[in-house]
Design goal:
The chain has 266 residues and is of the alpha/beta class. It has helices at residues 3-47, 127-130, 221-226, 232-238; strands at residues 75-77, 85-89, 96-97, 111-113, 118-122, 136-138, 143-145, 160-162, 169-171, 184-186, 191-195, 214-218, 242-249, 254-265. It has four helices and 14 strands. Residues 36-78 form the Leucine-rich repeat-containing N-terminal plant-type domain.
Length: 266
């Protein structure tokens, strides 16, 4: 066997070794992801109360066939023959308990819907680390309390954030305005106070903020600047949703200014 043939065989062997290693690593990644997602679902089931047995009757972990969690009620997977969870829709199942921290093990999750249940307690302050790739989060119509975490601003893929109909208090973090992909947002019917955040890429109707204790603000930055020399807190407690025509003082004459939409919700 000449030297050229030996070199060719050696090169082929190296390529084959690399292919085997890459295949093994890819398989390990899939297995690891699958085990992680199964752990996620187990943890979610064990951490919440299920008085109507919606999960108990469906989430059977004794079945170990390929992709078995994808048949669970409320679970959607990326592929039917894997166990990598794409979305969890647990809406209107009569569930109770705290926010399920085990959700962090569903590493490929992009949609989480816990609406119309009886979840309580605070929204985790590290929410962005638990569900970093989420595009849809619906926690509406529950009993969540505490404040809105500022770390929501790090959930950079969020398109939909619904926190309405809860018992959330405090100010809305101004950092929420950094959510550049947000298209749907609601915090209506809570106990929020202070200014409405200004989103950099979207504007939301007053209904998104309705029925809060002392939540106020404006949909126009120009208006905020024009009243900065006055007591804006009075505006927060007295002005209702509507359109206001301001008299803006000029150097030589007074001129009726533009109409601005004022948000005051109580």
């Amino acid at each position: 066997m000449n030297s050229q043939t030996k070199m060719s065989l050696n090169a082929t062997s190296v390529i084959l070794i690399h292919l085997v290693v890459w295949s093994y690593l890819g398989m390990f990644s899939v297995i690891h992801g699958t085990l992680s997602d199964i752990l996620c679902l187990r943890s979610v089931k064990e951490s919440i109360e299920d008085p109507l047995n919606n999960l108990t009757s469906s989430w059977n972990f004794d079945n170990q066939t390929e992709g078995f969690p994808c048949k669970f009620s409320g679970v959607d997977c990326w592929h039917f023959d894997e166990s990598k969870v794409l979305a969890l829709n647990l809406s209107n199942m009569g569930l109770r308990g705290k926010f399920p921290m085990g959700i962090q093990f569903c590493s490929s999750l992009v949609s989480l819907n816990l609406s119309n249940n009886a979840f309580s307690g605070t929204i985790p302050s590290n929410i962005s680390k638990l569900i970093p790739y989420l595009t849809i989060l619906d926690l509406s119509h529950n009993k969540f309390s505490g404040e809105v975490p500022s770390s929501f601003s790090n959930c950079s893929y969020l398109n939909v954030l619904r926190l309405n109909h809860n018992q959330i208090v405090g100010n809305l973090p101004v950092e929420l305005g950094l959510l550049s992909r947000i298209t749907s947002f609601s915090v209506a019917r809570n106990m929020l106070t202070g200014q409405v955040p200004g989103f950099i890429t979207a504007k939301f109707k007053p209904e998104s903020y309705a029925n809060n204790a002392r939540l106020c603000g404006t949909l126009e930055l120009e208006f905020l600047l024009s009243i900065s020399q006055h007591n804006s807190n009075n505006l927060c407690t007295n002005i209702q949703v509507g359109t206001l025509s301001l008299l803006v003082p000029k150097k030589k004459k007074k001129k009726r200014g533009k109409k601005f939409v004022i948000v005051f919700l109580q």
